Amino acid sequence: MEDAGRGAIERVGLIGAGAMAEAIVRALLDRRVVAPGQVVASDPLAERRTWLSSQYAVTTTPENRQCAAGASVVVLAVKPQQMGEVLADLRGRIDPDQLVVSIAAGVKIGAIVAGLEHERVIRVMPNTPAQIGAGMSVWAATDAANELDRARARTILRSLGRELFVESESYLDMATAVNGSGPAYVFLFLEAMIDAAVHIGLSRPVATELVIQTALGATLMARDSGQHLAELRNRVTSPAGTTAEGLLALEDGRLRAIVDRAITAAYERSKALGA
Question: pLDDT tier at 4 (50, 70, 90 boundaries)?
Fold first, then answer.
């Protein structure tokens, strides 16, 4: 088993067995952070329990309390509208030395602390690329979450991709609008590029391969080159060339303003849901 150092996890209890919970299970097992025998997941749906146990050899149960009992880390991986019922079910059942990690969008740390009557809580805003190990997770913690708790959270989140700790929970609403909702913006832009490529005459399979690989390569360059995005863009843009013409059309369409509006709208919605 891989040595996780101070972030070693003895047992994980996942409340909820949906797509993100499955991504966590798969990542922790693939990276040998834990063995199957150290994972328990609860879910009311028998088919989800059967799927997880058959695919990953982990223990499953319909009982949240049984799932949480004895876990060093309890992960709340349920939908926000289910959180009230889950918190009520687990209230008084979480030991003082257990860490609770919530990935439920919009559910405030204070609500979790009050609902569980438990102080050691970390709230995470992950995103869907975590399902392929390329996620971006932003997280905040209560003062009661000690260094071991935070190390354990990093161990889990780094198995899903990259992670970023923020001091204030208020940043999580902003993160929701960027990394949480962001994949959908990217998918929409890729879809628009593919449709445009088909419009000018490329077949859809060819257009799809060109667009996705181009976006992947450009993203990796943006991440790894160390250069400002404007500098990278300028290197592609020749005077009076095709790229300059295309960029002019995007600027005429107020692309930047539209993106700003989208992220601001998502941020405001995140705050409203949290309230």
Answer: very low
Q: Hey, is 135 helix, strand or coil?
A: strand
Kindly calculate the radius of gyration of the chain based on its CA atoms and give it in whole angstroms: 21
pLDDT bin (cut points 50, 70, 90) of residue 109 is very high
Using CA atoms, how far apart are residues 81 and 233, in angstroms rounded to an integer? 43
Which residue's structure tokens are 């992220």? 263
Give the residue among 27, 25, 34 at the shortest CA–CA distance from 2. Answer: 34
* Closest C-alpha to 34, from 124, 151, 152: 152
Give the CA distances from residue 222 to residues 146, 226, 228, 256, in Å, rounded to whole numbers and listed in that order.
Answer: 35, 7, 8, 18
End-to-end CA, the chain:
42
Rounded to 10°, the helix 19-30/147-159 angle is 100
169 neighbors 140 (Cβ within 8 angstroms): yes
What is the number of residues in the chain? 275
pLDDT digit string (tens) for 193-245? 999 999 999 999 999 999 999 999 999 999 999 999 999 999 999 999 999 99
